[in-house]
# Entry
Amino acid sequence: GWVLGIILAAAILFQIFLTYLALRWVLQPVHWLSGGVEALAQGQLEHRVRSDRHDELGRLARGFNRMAERISTMLSARKQLLLDVSHELRSPITRMKVALEMMPGDELRKNLEEDLLMLENLLNNARRFSDYASNPIEVSITRGEDQAVLSVSDYGVGIATEE
# Structure
């Protein structure tokens, strides 16, 4: 009887071991996802989890990877937008436009907007039609008693006298 008891105990231990292995295999994607969540929480946006299984946990892992990719893409787009906006706000003309938006919509604002448009066209044309790599555009301002004179010098093809 004791031999049968040992065989039964060994069979039970072997069954427990097989159950452990099966549970470990089934729950492995949960471990991968847990590590992925932790990595994402620490800012490691390039981290992806294994998704080679074809069951619900594999679909969950693939969904996690898609989510991480979208987050990474969205943050990259946000970063690029902030860089673009900060670059644009460094431009004096853009800052003037923002300031004009804050002014009441009266005649002064209308005149200033028109002046800015005539300015943002002169400067755009100077940039567009000049070879500023070899001859840069020169912008200067001279202050008088009751006026300011803005001069723009470029080395482009020029404007016909009649225009």
The helical segments are 2-41, 56-89, 92-102, 107-128.
